[in-house]
Amino acid sequence: MDFHQLYYTSCRSGLSGYAGYQFNAVTPGVAPEVMSEVEALSSYEPPSTLGHSPTPEQIAGCPVNLCFVPGPRPIAANVVFTGTDYSGRFGNYFAHALVPEAGSWQGPLPIELWRAALWTRETVDGTELPPVPSPLPAGPLGRDAVDDFLDRAPGRSLLPALLSAVERAVLDEERSVVIYAADADEVARWIAAVSFLLPPPVAARMSFATYQFRPSYSRYHVIGTQPGAEIVADERSFQAFYLFDFTTGRASEAEVGPLPVLLAAAGTVAAGPLWRRAAALAAGGEVRLADWYAVAVAAALLDGGVGVGPEELDAVCAWMAEHGPRLDGGMLATIAAAVLGHDAVSAAHLTGLADAAAEGGQAELLAQTEELLVTRQVAEVVRPEGTDSHAGVAAEVPPAVPVSRRLRSQKAREFAADRYTRALAEAGPATVLRLLRLAVAHDIRPDARALRECGLRTIGPELVRQRPEPATYEAVQRWPDLRSGVLACLDHAAAEGRSLREVFELGLDTAIPEEELLARPALREAALLVRARRQPERRVDTALALLSGRGRSLDETVLRELWPGGWSVSEAMAMLRRLPSSALGDPVLVAWVTAVLDRPLPDGDRQGMDSYAALCGLLARLPLTGTLPAGSRDRVAEMVRIHETERRIVDAARQGDDKKWRAAIQTLLAFHAATKTPAVRTYLRTHLAEQLVSGPHERLPTLIAHAPPEIAQAYLDDLDRQLGGEQAGATAATAFATLYTALAHRDTVHVADALQDVLLTHLSEWRKRDLNDVEHELRGHSNRMADEFRRWRLAHCRPRRRWLPSWPSHS
């Protein structure tokens, strides 16, 4: 491919036909628009330091502007200052431009034409120039020369940021990059470094100029300038451009990714083959440096891996997992071999590499990678011999187990099973736990005998000796063979008389299925006791299970373990109902039952009182009662008689026999007066109050007037409670009927006053409808009583009304 030439300067003769700035000569066939573009980019102003009367040497030392503009018609031009023109006018320059005949640039990179021998600064007599054949002869700026410059350049640390800034200028059309250096030669070297290091497609799109007097007027991606040009390296310039001032080492901020760092460290010589390999590996959609990163790392690995570290391996392993299926099998294996042989390869890298092998269908590579992964990860969790064989589990669990996943290669799985089995045989407690957690991640089951030995010789003794961390119990729960060994160890410890209660209490009880303890009575008893403490509702079941397992009478020690504070009434009932008949005469029961009978009942605990009565009724039918202390036996008999009397009260009320009802109530009052037992007194006080509230009103005033004060108060309290309940209307009617009856006798007027106080507390706030219901209920007994209630409510009650909002009138 040939290149058209164009000469532009101020001359006496040229294509225009008159003197002045014009094309002195061009290769025939150059399009007019190309000539216009060359004319636009070839203007030149020398540095202000040149002065008005420079010497020839000073003129020759003016900066050269080698510039390049890519596109459908790429142009490279070498512009030099020549001093005076044909007429002696100062300020002339000469531009020698090259334009490829075929439209695309081929040959050396444009920056490699710096100070090339093909450039001229002399005009010719004719107007036609011959084409320049390819390949174009390059100048002295080869890769070796650039690397030599970079090795000596104080500003090399800015190179990664320079690469990132140029990428943004080219791809995002952001602010231009300005390279401010001592002279144009240094500028050219930095541009050469960028051209060699950037991905070739990005470098091909980069426009540049090695010298511009006014960078603010320039539209190149990369602009070179130097002292004496019209630019000040101040904050405004650092914001307006990506300014790299290599005279001071200052630069604009530019976000730098990992690839620019890798490329800058590799150098331009290594970048050549790296980008050729990367092009062969690329998927085709890579544009930015970030897109090329993993591809470039893979290429670097194929070339020896210089500059590749752990982070680069992260990227290439992830890239291989994604792109493995499209890569040639041999290429994938070659890159994988480079990764496997790299000094910085880690378990995480191997996991990514295994993914790539699996996706690419590389069975042998998958097995090789996973075997190495197992070896590395097992080595991470296995400490040197002796470091944790006598140490506590809780203190030795760190460091954490490596993150891993299920092994996919059958060959690697067999390898891993064998590796785990051998490692477990030599491991201390903490290492065993780490190995087993890793085995779970790998989905590998070590040898059953090895696991049982670990439980028997390592984990079991550790459980007996100290307080292990929760991972110990998780391992025991997960691994049945390990658990078998642990149970054998604990069974042996129990046979030697050691208490295992604390071992189970700290978490072992939840790790062992109950059926596995059936054949180990000592362990089962310890586990049951611990579970009962944790779940009090299971204590009765536990006591019965222990009794069944022992096959002998109750043990006072076991009962105290289960119930340090003794039985509740309901627990005593449950035990007596479910104990086998052979155990109901056990002397141990006497003290436990007596304690329940002697315990006071709290006021208001109706359920507890009913349970107390039921317990006494149950005891009355058991031979055990005959062995109780005399006071307890009397109490049981007393409660049985009280319960029988209560049944007579209920029957009399149902039959409407007021005489029998009154007689039965008098009997309960007599029991209350006679008993010395607090629990019985509480029971009678509560039950008498309930019976009186619902009793016939004709009898109540006299009964209440002559009842003990505590019974009368209990009646009023229960009345107050029921007036707030679901049957409040019927209760209010009965209470008012009692009040009405009490007013008829002088000795019961005080009862009427007390009843009125309670009724007013509630009825004064009732709704009219609720008061009407009470009146209706009373009218069923007596019209006179109902009329009296009407007068009473009018005097004492102000019914609440529900008002509906009125609609606004529309007039």
Describe this structure in words.
The chain has 811 residues and is an alpha+beta fold. Among the domains are: 2-133, no CATH class; 257-361, no CATH class; 385-416 and 424-591, no CATH class; 723-799, no CATH class. It is built from 36 helices and eleven strands. Strands 1, 2, 3, 4, 5, 6, 7, 8, 9, 10 and 11 form an eleven-stranded mixed beta sheet that branches. Helix 16 (410-425) packs antiparallel against helix 17, helix 25 (569-578) runs parallel beside helix 27 (606-620) and helix 35 (768-779) runs antiparallel to helix 36. The chain starts with a strand and ends in a 15-residue tail after the last helix.
Number of helices: 36
Q: Count of DSSP E strands?
A: 11
Oligomer: single chain
Helical residues, percent: 40-55%
Mean pLDDT: 88
User: Could you tell me the strand content as a percent range?
Assistant: 5-15%
Termini separation: 100 Å
- State the shape: elongated
Largest sheet: 11 strands, mixed
What structural class do helix, strand and pairing data support?
alpha+beta
Taking Cα atoms only, what radius of gyration do you get, to the nearest Å?
52 Å
